[in-house]
Design brief:
The chain is α+β, with helices and mostly antiparallel strands. It has one domain (21-91): Type 1 dockerin domain, CATH 1.10.1330. It contains 3 helices and 2 strands; from the N terminus they run ββααα. It has a two-stranded antiparallel sheet. The longest helix is centred in the C-terminal third of the chain and has 12 residues, at 63-74. The chain starts with a strand and ends in a 17-residue tail after the last helix. Bound molecules: calcium ion (2 copies). Residues 54, 56, 58, 60-62, 64-65 line the site of one calcium ion (CA). One calcium ion binds next to α3.
């Protein structure tokens, strides 16, 4: 999604802001690949960036997130497969 900011405090007028979200891209590499498994493990072992591992967006990290991640990664449970997807290049 790209939006044009017309005015906001501290942000120059006519600044273009791109907001993109790639489900399962836990390591924020702009690609979804097998590296996400390592990234998920590191998040669970570390401080947990809730927004990266709360895959079902319930507000807490639990076993349901692992199921949701698996469904999104593999394209099961009614989802499209995100494994192998990449964000488009920046504008
Ligand atoms: Ca990634
Ligand atoms: Ca959750």
């Amino acid at each position: 999604m790209t939006c044009l900011i017309e005015s906001a405090q501290g942000i120059p007028a006519e600044t273009t802001l791109e907001i993109a979200h790639l489900p399962c891209d836990v390591d924020q590499s702009a690609n979804v690949d097998i590296g996400e498994a390592t990234a998920v493990g590191e998040e669970y072992e570390g401080d947990r960036s809730l927004w990266l591992v709360d895959t079902d967006r319930s507000g807490e990290v639990d076993g349901d997130d692992a199921t949701e991640f698996d469904n999104l990664f593999n394209g099961t449970g009614g989802y499209s497969q995100w494994n192998g997807q990449s964000l488009p290049p920046p504008l």
